[in-house]
Structures are given as structure tokens and as C-alpha cells.
Amino acid sequence: MRVFKACLLVIKRRMVMFATYFFIFISLSILLSQFSSEDHTGGFEESRPTFTVINRDKETPYTEKMMDFLKAHGTWVPLKDDKEALQDARFNDAVSYILIIPEGFQDALQSEKPVKLLENMTQDSASGYQMSSYVDQYWEYIRTWEKIEGKPDREKTADEVLKLLSSSVKVEKRQYLKTQPVSQGYGAQYQVAPYIILVICVLCITSIFLSFQRPDIRMRNLCGPLKPFTRLWQMGLGCACVGIVFWILLTLAGFVIYYDSVKNMDIRITALILLNSFIMLLFAMAVSVLASLFVKDSNTQNAAANILALGLSFLGGAFVPTSIMGESVLKFAKCLPVYWYEECLSKISGLTGFGMENLLPVWKCMGILLGFTAAVFCVTLAVNKHRSGAEESFGSNKTEIEW
């Protein structure tokens, strides 16, 4: 097992660099845990937008009850009926919604040409539209009631409308899993995990292959008693051991940092997340072996590691959620393996059962990721066979082992 021991020696000499990457990732995970879902509640709480009502019409039970209704769903900010004051309030975001009731509005409710309400709201927020919806509902009920009753008692009509608007539906909240779902902190760690997995695997595996690519070492190995298959098998074993050890460290770090969340999770969900990350590790190792066929020195090695890791991670949705990507970018992202890793992680986090219909999307994403791994492995074999007899394979290379 001399080749295997040589692989471990190469990794040992690069241990400081690998540890630096790993601890940076762990520090990032700790920061993510501070902004995780521990601070948010799972209940529903109605937002209360700020609003102002300027009544240029007469005061009636309609307007009084409307104010009571709006105050029950928002925060009233009293302002003067002054153009400059209203503009300042909107400019400084003192109010999200301004309603102006023009003169003659209530008397024209049943006319063919009703007077329109004047509204000013925040365009890039739902707060203004929320209050506008409340106003529209209230006056639509008033108009409908007046059309039915003719000239009803306004006090009674306004009370009936408030009863209709105050009606609510009972909502029952159910949890289908007996355990807690995936916490945002634990999920965030595995969301960005493809980056560190790709970086470490590319750096480790290319370092091992670089050590055996110097021309004199290659020629010595070719004329030595060790068979090429045995040599490659030991190199593959060394790469696999390094990758698996790193994956175990990454898994243990997640358990330690998010222990309170993980202990309450369903063990089947945890197992699926770990299986998904392990398949990602297999892909990263396959890509690293392919990259090692083109890496000639340490500069090229670092460039390959960062370009592959950052490119695949950013475009695949590890750092940027796929929900905010454009259609063209999303179409391209679906051609990348990291996208299917993130899609699988999302499916696992949203599981409400473990039947075949629930797990089928998860197995589909994992199968696609395994397909990418197999495809990269086949390309690696083809490229290696093509380059094995080429003269450029004996070019100048730097090595980690000095003989």
C-alpha cells in the first residue's frame, strides 16, 4: 500500500490549507445559525399598516363605521388636509396608505356616475394594497346594501356591513410529522454545502494526482513491479478515504452546531439529507478526478477549485435562491448538478409523509444527480484514455513529493 500511504502524505502536507477552508465554512455555519428560524414564530399575526383618511364629504354613520373598521386592521395616523403635509408623510414613509373621500361621494353611491375615492399608497409594498382592499370591500357592501334596500337606515346598514366584514373562518393547524421540520439554520448549512464539498475535493484529489504526474516519477512507476491497475486502485482508495473523512467531519459539525434542532427532527429526514450530501460528494469526487487530468501546477489547481465551486454553486442555487432567478438563468441552472442537489434538499425539507408519492420527487432528484456523476466519470475515462498515449502527458509538472 505504498501508493495509498503516499496519497495520505500529500494530504498531510496540505492539511493547513484544507483546515482553513473547513473552519471558514464552519464559522459561516455558526453565523447562519444566529439568523436561523429560532427567532421567528410559527403563528400568524396580522400586519397593521399605517393609514390616513381625509374626509372632504359630510360625516355620516358610513364614514364613522369605516374608520372603526380600518382602525381594527391598521394604525391610524391623523394628518391635516394639506397637500404639503400629505406629501411629506408619504415621502418620509409616515403612512402607507392615504384615502381621500371627495365631496358628494356618499350621495352618489347609487348614481350611474359615482364619485371615485382618491387613494395614494406605497407601490413597492403590500401594506397600501392591503388597506385599499379593506376600503373596497367596505364600500362594495354599502353599495350592494343600498341597491337592495333603496334608502336604508345608514346606521343599521353600516352595522350590518361591519358584521359581515368581521366574520371569520376557523383555521385548524395540523402537523403531519410527529417531529419538528428541518430548521432554517441546519437547512442553510446544507444549502451552501456544495461549495465547500467541491473546493475540498478538487484541492485534495488534484493534489494527489499532481504528485504522480512528474515525468520521472511516471516513468519509474511504469517500469516498476507495481501494476497500473493496482496503483490506480490505491490512488482511488486514498481519494475516497479523504472525501469520506471530510464528509463525516461536515456531518458531525452540523450535528454539534444544530444539536437542539437535529435531535427533534425525524431521523428519516436527517438520513435523506445526509444521503443527498453524500451523493453530492460522489459527484464532487468525479469532477475532481476529471479536473486533475488538466491541472498542471498549484496555480491552475486553485483556479480550477474556485471556478468550479463558485460557478456551480452560484448558478445552481446554493447562494442565490432559484425562486428569484430569471427564466433563462433557471433553464441553464437545470443543466447543472448543484441545482438538483438544492431541489432535492428543498423536497426533503418539505416532506409531510414518507409514502411513495411523497418520496418520488426526492428519488428523482437524487437519480438525476447520480446520472451527472456517472456521466462525468465516463467522460473522465474517455479523456484519460485519449491522453494516456499523448506526448503532452509527459510535460513539466510540479509535485508534492520530492524524491
Automatic annotation (TrEMBL):
- Which segments cross the bilayer? 192-212, 232-259, 271-295, 307-324, 361-383
What is the recorded membrane topology of this protein?
Answer: Multi-pass membrane protein
Q: Which InterPro entries match?
A: ABC-2_transporter_component, ABC2_TM
What one GO molecular function would you report for this record? ABC-type transporter activity
List where in the cell it is found.
Cell membrane
Keyword terms, alphabetized: Cell membrane, Membrane, Transmembrane, Transmembrane helix
| Name under which the protein is recorded | ABC transporter permease
Source organism (scientific name): Blautia producta
